[in-house]
Write a structure and sequence with these properties.
The complex is a heterodimer. Chain A is an alpha/beta fold. Chain A contains five helices and six strands. Chain A has a single domain, classed as ATP synthase, F1 complex, gamma subunit (Pyruvate Kinase, Chain: A, domain 1). Helix content of chain A is 59%, strand content 14%. Chain A has a five-stranded mixed sheet with strand order 3-2-1-4-5, sandwiched between helices. The radius of gyration of chain A is 29 Å and the shape is elongated. Chain B is of the alpha+beta class. Chain B folds into two domains: 83 residues, F0F1 ATP synthase delta/epsilon subunit, N-terminal (ATP Synthase, domain 1), CATH 2.60.15; 45 residues. Classes of the chains: A alpha/beta, B alpha+beta. Chains A and B meet through helix 1, helix 4, strand 6 and helix 5 of A and strand 5, strand 8 and helix 2 of B. Strand 6 of chain A pairs parallel with strand 5 of chain B.
Chain lengths: 300, 137
């Protein structure tokens, strides 16, 4: 049987852990609002940009493209003739810290599945977030190499981070002749849930139906030159949005995990306090019995 | 002239102007300043860093913009800027401190990612300073 002191110490330890968990919950709760606002604010740019690029894609693709000439830079993000089908890219966005329930585990499971499915291909990996980076760096898979990593950017994601990531991504995509880049991350669905998303980031798929007539447009400088600048910005705007989504989702997951953990701690404390009282009561009863027995013995 | 232009100004961070009715927009285009009045032909131009101004009912508004694009179609002007700040809100003191800080970080050359970030910040701050200086002589 545990002594009173042991139980008291146990309760104290759990209570202080609970306090830490509650504090962590409050911190991420406070940050989540700002993360959500940033997410909403970044949306118009990404959607408008996409609309505009879609409008002009058909026209760019329709431009004469001689078979022998090198493919134009921007076009390669849509139809890349020189791509090597045995080479693909993978962008993994996880959190920097654990303590967020299954947030990172879900992503890493999907990553493992992806790697298994593409055993025969060379995979170039881009890792954002410490958890994913560490996991991928530990993996001993010969067909994998880590091309870019970015850790410690949460929860202060800025466009500059998306800019750097985008540059690295585009450089690898073109230089290593990747045939596609797949993105795996957690999307912010609501405060209570996150969605695992796995989708193709590159190459772009041009929209089938274009509503705007772009033929009467004037361009300054030329259409191709502008397109060359448009495409990177679209990619970066997209990445920025994804980073913000992931950031908000991570904070939401942390909040939920910490909430559940501190509730659980509360239950344990209640159970232990009950036990403490029982043990104490048993001790008192024993003492009284001793006294009564002693008195009885004297009387006799 | 009763026709108006609809001006939208968005940056990756946020939407600064949404469906604002204006009479005229002037911005730094690839080949020099470009003014847009209602009825302009559709264009898509590259935006350089500099000042974007608009006139609305005789009043003027000015933003310091940093690179991007402008799309003009059907009297709608969509400005996609890498960065934009309301000219009045630019704090010259703060910007010059930022420039100094960024230059310090660049000269140390010991950090890895901070190095690239600092370079970006430096470019932005310098562009903002330019707009502010021009405005006040």
């Amino acid at each position: 049987m545990e002594s009173l002191r042991d139980i008291r110490q146990n309760i104290k330890a759990i209570k202080s852990t609970q306090q830490i968990m509650q504090t962590m919950k409050m911190i991420s709760n406070a940050r989540i609002r700002r993360a959500q606002e940033a997410m909403v604010a970044a949306r118009p740019f990404a959607t408008k940009m996409l609309e505009m690029v879609q409008d002009f894609t058909q026209e760019v693709l329709a431009l004469p493209q001689p078979e022998d000439a090198p493919e134009s830079w921007a076009r390669r993000f849509f139809v890349n003739r020189s791509a090597d089908p045995s080479k693909i890219g993978l962008l993994v966005i996880t959190g920097d810290k654990g303590l967020a329930g299954s947030f990172n585990a879900v992503i890493l499971r999907a990553v493992m599945r992806f790697i298994k499915e593409n055993k025969d291909k060379q995979i170039t990996v881009f890792a954002v977030g410490k958890k994913g980076r560490d996991f991928l760096a530990r993996l001993r898979v010969p067909n994998l190499h880590l091309a870019y990593e970015s850790v410690g950017i949460f929860p202060k994601v800025s466009y500059a981070h998306a800019d750097l990531l985008g540059n690295a991504l585009m450089k690898s995509f073109l230089e290593e002749k990747l045939s596609s880049v797949t993105l795996i991350y957690n999307d912010f669905k609501s405060l209570a849930s996150q969605n695992l998303v796995q989708r193709t980031l590159l190459p772009f798929v041009p929209a089938a139906d274009v509503v705007k007539d772009t033929h009467e447009f004037e361009f300054e400088p030329g259409l191709l030159e502008i397109f060359k600048l448009l495409v990177p910005r679209l990619i970066k705007a997209n990445l920025y949005r994804v980073l913000l989504e992931s950031q908000a989702a991570n904070l939401a997951a942390t909040t939920n995990a910490m909430d559940a953990a501190s509730k659980n701690a509360g239950e344990i404390v209640t159970a232990l306090e009950l036990k403490l009282n029982k043990v104490r009561q048993a001790g008192i009863t024993n003492e009284i019995l001793d006294i009564v027995n002693g008195a009885e013995a004297l009387n006799n | 002239m009763d026709k108006k232009l609809i001006l939208n100004l968005v940056t990756p961070q946020k939407q600064l102007l949404k469906d604002l009715e204006v009479d005229m927009v002037v911005f730094p285009a690839f080949e020099g300043e470009m003014g847009v009045l209602p009825g302009h032909i559709p264009v898509l131009v590259q935006l350089k860093e500099g000042s974007l101004r608009y006139k609305k009912d005789g009043q003027e508004g000015e933003f310091a913009v940093i690179g991007g694009f402008v799309e003009v179609v059907d009297n709608v002007v969509n400005v996609f800027a890498e960065g934009a700040d309301l000219a009045e809100e630019i704090d010259e003191e703060a910007e010059s401190q930022k420039i100094k800080k960024a230059k310090d970080a660049l000269s140390r050359k010991d950090a890895d990612i901070d190095f690239e970030l600092a370079e970006l910040e430096l470019k932005k701050s310098i562009a903002r300073m330019k707009v502010k200086r021009r405005k006040h002589g």
